[in-house]
Amino acid sequence: MNVELKAIIEQAQDRYLKADDLSALESFINSLLDRLSLYRTLRDREISFLQLVANQLEAEMPDTETKQLETAIKQLSLVCRYSAMAMLMQDQALVDQRLLKWLGQVATLQETQSLNQAMYGLFTKVLNKELSRSQLELLNPFLNQAKTTLVA
After folding, report:
1. How far is CA 53 from CA 7, 61, 79, in A?
2. What does the DSSP assignment read for 14-75?
3. Which domains occur in the chain, in start order?
4. What is the DSSP letter of 101?
5. What's the pLDDT tens digit per position in 16-71?
6. CA separation for the pair 72, 18 (Å, rounded)
7. Do 31 and 121 form a contact (C-beta atoms < 8 A)?
8. What distance in Å separates the CA atoms of residue 84 and residue 13, rounded to the nearest whole number?
């Protein structure tokens, strides 16, 4: 859960919320419908997005082993799912704590940074084409967090 929201809820047990707290809660609630809509879009269209990336990746990197491509796409799927949940909950720490700590180590051990860089570039192109600007603004902070770890 969003750390700030959790703190607000805990504070409400002892007192009425202050104006700043109410504004933060209101902002969270007002954006919830947009975030839910984007989450549903990602859930429902993830396979088609990833298939577009996989097809293009195969064409651009024909010498890459199929197993390595499959692993990279599976990892991208995890990044997409965790980023979607983090976006929904507005919890930046969720991606880092539950995904990037171990996936970053795996990417380093497998030496897949160049593959990841190409894959993320393609994924970004697909999302730019398929999602609205406002949806991208909601999702990009979480995807960029993962990209920074896995491409570096």
Report:
1. 39, 12, 14
2. TSPPPHHHHHHHHHHHHHHHHHHHHHHHHHHHHHHHHHHHHHHHHHH-TTS-HHHHHHHHHH
3. 34-151 (1.10.490.20)
4. H
5. 988 988 898 898 889 999 999 999 999 999 999 999 999 999 999 999 999 999 99
6. 46
7. no
8. 30
pTM value is 0.86
> Which residue is listed with tokens 């599976």?
74
Please, how many CA atoms are within 13 Å of residue 71, restricted to the half-sphere of its CB?
14
CA distance 15 to 11: 6
**81 vs 89: CA distance, rounded Å:** 12
Phi and psi based region of residue 90 (left: phi greater than 0; alpha: psi -120 to 50; beta: remaining):
left
